[in-house]
Amino acid sequence: MNAVIDPLDRPVSVPATPFLAADVGGTYARVALMQSSQDAAREVEVLAYRKFACADFPGLTELLQAFVQGDTHTPVRHCVIACAGQVIGNDVLTDNTAWPIHLSQLRQALALDDIAVLNDFEALGYAIDQDAGSGARLLCGPDTHIDGPTLVIGPGTGLGAAVRLPGPDGGHVLTTEAGQMDFAPNSIREREVLVQLAPDGGYVAYERIVSGPGLLTLYAALCSLRGETPKLSTPEAITAAAATRHDAEAVEAVQIFCASLGSFAGSLAMTFMSRGGVYLAGGFLYSLFALLERSTFEERFLHGRSARAFLSRVPVWVTEHGRKGVLGAAKWYLRRGLRGDAGPGHFSMGGEG
Q1: DSSP of 71-125
Q2: pLDDT, tens digit (0-9, with 9 covering 90-100), for 282-294
Q3: Which residues of 75-92 are buried (b: 16+ CB within 10 A; e: fewer)?
Q4: Model confidence band, residue 26 (pLDDT cutoffs 50, 70, 90)
Q5: Residue with more model confidence, 196 or 98
Q6: 232 has pLDDT over 60
Q7: How far apart are CA 326 and CA 332, in angstroms?
Q8: What angle do CA 193, 195, 198 make, to 5 degrees?
Q9: Is 297 helix (H, G, I), strand (E, B) or coil?
């Protein structure tokens, strides 16, 4: 998902007034009131920001209305939304949000002049730069920042990935559906898990294992292999049990999760020759940092033979998701979305008057 397509085929100008930026995930939506910054050191300025639980609202319209009513004091006529999925007509189709997103309904309910939509990990890619990297924790590799393609990967409700290519005006971010790649087991135990998930063979995506729901899937599969009934029902409970080593299946599930994430990240780093590094984004992974450090993530990331020489020079950081999604969406909106020069795949719905 990425283009700015105005129904009237007209370029839209950059708003001089504040605008909404929303980063909509499967569990949480982060919403901010933004404006173009007058400070040369900052591209955008955050005027108000809130994080909402998606389950508290019947739809995105009601969630954004709650923000507008509680946190804005003047009419807002422009909005950019970062989310997973594909824009088909006036709808965003995705399995990883709490509810369908109907763009025409949203524009009318909020009296917006236009709505622009981009991929959530594309937005993260525009937010990740050397300054944004401050506060990130180095997981493996050299503690250096060099110019080159940079990967952003995040297991959450799904498994997102994007690559930022350096260039003028902040470079360019490529979206991917890498989370849908076939899972490749690396050990006998992982093959046994794969048989549990697909006993008759067939396609199993990395996202089914390397995500929050994927961790639950792993745990249930391991319990089944041992003939035991699962006792834990949330990813947080599994990681907590793994950290205290109170549940053998939880420990093994986290080990396989971290190892599989290492293989996935290493494969993408080779694919895009990511000299600029890899950012593992999200609060879920940030809370797992100590377990990631003790896991075989690094060994699996490095792969083997000739690839190891390159990958050993690629730094891997773990960073909080935080405001990065809304910041990246706002940067994209100001740089490209409202200049009318974005590439195919983005979407913008303009008003009639």
Answers
A1: H-SS---EEEEEESSEEETTEEE-SSSSS-EEHHHHHHHHT-SEEEEEEHHHHHH
A2: 878 888 999 999 9
A3: ebbbbbbbbbbebeebeb
A4: confident
A5: 196
A6: yes
A7: 10
A8: 110
A9: helix
The beta strand positions in the chain, using DSSP E, are: 19-24, 28-36, 44-53, 78-83, 86-88, 91-93, 101-102, 114-119, 137-140, 150-155, 159-165, 172-175, 277-281, 316-319, 347-350
Rounded-to-integer distance, Cα 306 and Cα 294, Å: 25
Strands (DSSP E) contained in 123-244 are 137-140, 150-155, 159-165, 172-175
pLDDT band at 304 (very low <50, low <70, confident <90, very high): confident
The edge-to-edge listing of strands for the beta sheet with 159-165 is: 137-140, 316-319, 277-281, 150-155, 159-165, 172-175
Q: How far apart are CA 316 and CA 298, in angstroms?
A: 9
Judge whether 33 and 76 are in contact, CB under 8 Å: yes
Residues 6+ apart with CB under 8 A from 65: 109, 110
The dihedral over CA atoms of 50, 51, 53, 58, expressed in degrees to the nearest 10, equals 40
Computed from CA positions of residues 52, 53, 56, 60, in that sequence, does the dihedral angle turn out positive or negative?
Answer: positive
Per-residue pLDDT at 148: 92
How far apart, in whole angstroms, are the C-alpha atoms of residue 238 and residue 231?
9
What is the mean pLDDT of the segment spanning 293-297?
Answer: 95
170 Cβ partners below 8 Å, 6+ apart? Answer: 126, 129, 331, 335
Q: Length of the chain, please? A: 353
Cα–chain center distance at 172: 16
Q: What is the pTM of this model?
A: 0.85
